[in-house]
Amino acid sequence: MNTDWLEDGRKIPDDVMFYLRRMAVNAVRKLGYSPETIAETYNFNRSCIYRWLNQYDQGGFDALESKMPPGAEPLITVKIEEWLKNTILDSTPVKFGYDTNLWTCTIIANLLKQEFNIDVSDSTIRLHLKAMNLSCQKPEYQDVKMDDKDVDNFINNKFPLIQQVAQKIDADIAFEDEAGVGVMTRHGKTWGLRGKTPVVKVNMVRGGYNVLSAVTAQGGMDYLIQDENINGSKYIEFLEQLIEDRDRPLILLVDHATFHKSKEVRQYVRANREKLRVFFLPKRAPAYNPDEQVWNEVKNNYIRKQPIRNSKDLKIRLTEALDSLRDNTKRIISFFQLPRTKYAAGVA
Length: 348
Fold this sequence. Notes:
43% helix, 348 residues, Nucleotidyltransferase, domain 5
């Protein structure tokens, strides 16, 4: 244990020093000891004791509390900090003439110089943003044509009615989507020599598959891999797979893809009304479809780092990835726990 404070009172922590001052003053003013005796007992200079007594006489025991000397006035005031946070959260650099939608520390530093004539470094900006509970993240891109009112109406009015229909006909509710996965689907990073971009030899032959999938809030999942582009007839193949051998009717939530609304699909749904109902999600709002997470999972967590030799190899790996995900009930359920999908978590 470090005992330097026994020889040098300046090394005593401020909160401890506050209580020592109070004890010393109390000993003189309340118990009748002389200032000299207390100074000798506590190993303090006699002038300290008299200064504390004077502070006590003017302001009581509270006046004995340590007061840190004021530091330099902060460059970024509370008012500027509030402006900065609102600017970052509610707008993009495009508003200020920059050719990007993404905030960087350099842009923020330049903006502070432009708006408030404040010079701060990128590293200072980074530390300050963290202190403001902000972090650098990969953004979710949202279509500028998405209608917020349409989304709100769907979540608060239309979807509750769909749930009522599901309850009335004892149906399951699933969310469906489709995506293309190609041989050249690659993501991720690798290590290499500093200053020299790593080179990884891969097959650059194009090719791939279109995949349809549907998920439920209970963790269920179905999928179908198609070699060709999806049209009305190909989509009907997936619908037939979904309702085959089902004990309960199925309500399917889909986006506004052209083939979803094709004449042959509408006729098929109408002919199988006892087994299948189809409703539409809000336009241009994929983030509200839990099934969108299937593609994020497959592409980023399964396929992205694997060496794909050709289309045949891709299909094998794609099937393995989809089968693995289909067996991971908890992971599928988590797709319904995101901020924009949790509205669908309580479906029947």
